[in-house]
Write a structure and sequence with these properties.
The chain has a domain of about 90 residues: Kinase associated domain 1, KA1 (TATA-Binding Protein, 2-Layer Sandwich), CATH 3.30.310.80. A four-stranded antiparallel sheet has the order 1-2-3-4. It is of the alpha+beta class and about 130 residues long. The radius of gyration is 20 Å and the shape is globular. It has two helices and four strands. GO terms for molecular function: ATP binding. Keywords: ATP-binding, Nucleotide-binding. InterPro entries: KA1/Ssp2_C.
Length: about 130
């Protein structure tokens, strides 16, 4: 992990919290690694994504358990079809720049994808361990 420029914290001898700063986007990517013994000669390494945005949202909603990035909690988005859009969306909502709800965005989106950063981090660790 040192060769991959990962920082880590030992939770217990079988559980690590790992982070790395993406050199391109500057995002801090975090994951949890947990080692399980399957049988006397086999082990399983579990990779879990830790997304601070989802953990922060879970904290604000009153949940005491943070959710993983891949879990369904907080990720459900209602689907809209073109037919279900009602005429309630007036042209008044469009600003002169053509964006909805004025020129300031409601949510600031981070550059890049946390999921892709997580998968790249997993792939680099697996490749390094396989050597």
């Amino acid at each position: 992990m040192r060769t991959l420029s990962f920082d880590w914290k030992v939770v217990n001898p079988y559980h690590l919290r790992v982070r790395r700063k993406n050199p391109v986007t500057g995002n801090l990517v975090k994951m949890s690694l947990q080692l399980y013994q399957v049988d006397s000669r086999s082990y399983l390494l579990d990779f879990k994504s830790i997304d601070d945005d989802i953990i922060e949202a879970a904290g604000k909603s009153g949940s005491s358990t943070p959710q993983r990035s891949g879990s369904t909690a907080g990720l459900h988005r209602p689907r809209l079809s073109i037919d279900s859009v009602t005429p309630a969306l007036d042209m008044q909502l469009l600003s002169s720049s053509g964006s909805l709800f004025g020129s300031s965005p409601l949510l600031t989106s981070r550059q890049g994808s946390h999921t892709m950063d997580f998968f790249e981090m997993c792939a680099s660790l697996i490749t390094t361990l396989a050597r």
